[in-house]
Amino acid sequence: MPAPEPSPVRVTWVRCGATDFEEAADSLRVVSDESEFGYQLMSQEIAVPPGMIPIVHIEGQIDSGIITIGLLDEKRARWIGSRSYDQGPFQDRLIFDPGRNRSMTLVIANAGTKEKSSFHLGPARVVMTPPTKDGLPQSELGDQGWHVGYSAAGEVMDVGDGVSDITVGDVVACAGAGKANHADFIVVPRNLVCRVPAGCEMKLAATTTVGAIALQGIRRAACQLGETIAVIGLGLIGQITAQMLRANGCRVLGMDSDPVCVPVYYVSKLARDNGVVVCQVGEGADELFFGYPHWKTALRLQRLNDLPVPRFVKRTALATLRSSGSHRSFRYEWLRRGISDEPIFWGGAEAFTEAHKKLLLSQRLRRKFKTYSSWEPVSEIFARFRERAWEKSIANWMTYVDLHMRLPELLLMRIDKMTMGVSLEGRVPFLDHRLVEFALSIPESVKTKKGALKPIFKKAVRGLIPDDLIDRKKQGFGVPISEWYFDRLGGRIRADMNVFCCETDFLDREEVFRLIESGSPQSWYLHNFVLWWKSFISD
Q1: Is residue 192 assigned to a domain?
Q2: Do 33 and 120 sit in the same domain of this protein?
Q3: φ and ψ at 122, to 5 degrees?
Q4: Among the four residues 214, 241, 248, 340, which has the most C-beta atoms within 10 Å?
């Protein structure tokens, strides 16, 4: 039998440099000294079993100043890892690979400000966890993702040993994922730093890395004067690339795969043309407060599927749908998921069902991907949700998966591209981390009360916003793709798809043209794939 996992270790603190140290039943109030990086509190030595990874659960409130919380190695001579915290509440898990260290010590230190910090700490504990199947256990990167940002600019506060050409007070631009983060203080290797010329604005210098990425793409493409260049993806890098190409005498065609980008762009342009430079957008509100009509449908279907209906009844219904030619439909797909014990909801950005995807693929790819489905990447997110969620409800699962997939990959990408395309800054107040944490703590029964959409949110703003706006039917940005297909765009799509299907072995021509002739908006996604192929592969 495998050995039982170690029990959680409760952290006890020893006062080091702290000038005030007051213990209560479940909290600790601390005032630090004025040293630059001095240790203020230190835990007991905590044993790390071979092959295990420590996860430190810690929470509290920073009343003033900045502190660093981290782990020291077994000799208490080097940091295993650390993280800094500014004013406000925090609740975190510190996850660092201990390497060969057989023990560690948790330390709270000043963060280089030479000022006193005042903070409260709740109970802290350390849990040991084994490695994942990939080898490196729950690493900080794998569990929490990269720090945000890879391009920054600022004033040098200190330099390391051997650095002589950069001095304190210099204004520099920085690069590097995981290095040039969006933070008050960052540490960047010398080879990723350059001095900013006099007269260059800081906000422009902060985009140096982004501009370098765009320029490198242009260099590798070897673009020549007078050529027509297609830029696919009109985010910040795409916009900069297009401007550089135009300055280089090229004709630029910009394209994006999301049709909703068109109306979002024109709304953004209208705001900018009327003198607006910063706007607030509502992305995140529907995900946090249950605001989508199709979520209500998925919730109802999941609850129906959870009823004790014999599996053979469901299989009979599935066979009936297939024999009637409805196997491409989402009705068929949802019933199939229910029979397979998969959640009905896989995310808010599904374009094709599993059966339809297989039909669209060529015979060769159909055989190659016979055993694969989109459930594979979704299942990993679902497993994390089941492991970590405080309430494993259907509505919370919908929020969790869309916060991980549709929101960052589609909605935020879209608003970011279109607003920056007209020099408008779009901000997302609903995604403030404190609001997100609060929304995720609301039970499903409250979020979905009486089957209404966003009942809590609407109640909160009623009296501040006119009732006719609050109570009107939800309406997104509609794009007349079907009408376009029956006009000149239809001929262009048919020609492009015909050439693609003849020259490649990716898609089934008969199924592709059945989709096109139906006028389905799904053809838009296939056409954008073909345009990408023509621009970057075929030519």
Answers
A1: yes
A2: yes
A3: -90, -175
A4: 241
Contact by Cβ (8 Å): 170, 192? no
Q: How confident is the model at residue 1 (pLDDT cuts 50, 70, 90)?
A: very low
Co-location of 119 and 140 in the same domain: yes
Q: What is the dihedral of CA 525, 529, 535, 537, to 10 degrees?
A: 180
- Kindly indicate the confidence band of residue 160, based on its pLDDT and cuts at 50, 70 and 90: confident
Q: Residue 270 pLDDT > 60, yes or no?
A: yes
0.70 exceeded by the pTM? Answer: no
DSSP code of residue 411 = I
1-6 long-range contacts, CB within 8 A, separation 24+: 5/128, 5/129, 5/130, 6/49, 6/52, 6/128
* Residue 457, domain member (yes or no): yes
Backbone angles phi, psi at 442, to 5 degrees: -85, 130
The average confidence (pLDDT) of the chain is: 85
CB–CB of 260/479 below 8 Å? yes
What phi-psi label fits residue 129: left (phi over 0), alpha (psi between -120 and 50 degrees) or beta? beta
Q: Are residues 284 and 427 in the same domain?
A: yes
Closest among 230, 282, 281, 222 to 256, alpha carbons compared: 230
Residue 464 has pLDDT above 80, yes or no: yes
User: Quick one: pLDDT at residue 25?
Assistant: 74
Q: Are 94 and 33 within one domain?
A: yes
Please tell me what DSSP assigns to residue 175: E
Q: Are residues 268 and 358 in the same domain?
A: no
- The closest alpha carbon to 46, from 11, 20, 81, 80, belongs to 11
Q: What is the mean pLDDT of residues 219-248?
A: 80
Residues 394, 338, single domain; the answer is yes
Provide the residue range defining the domain that includes 41: 9-144
Quick check: is 1 in a domain?
no
141-154 residues labelled b (16+ CB within 10 A) or e (exposed): eeeeeebebbbbbb
Are 28 and 13 in contact, with CB atoms under 8 Å apart?
yes
In the chain, the number of structural domains is: 6
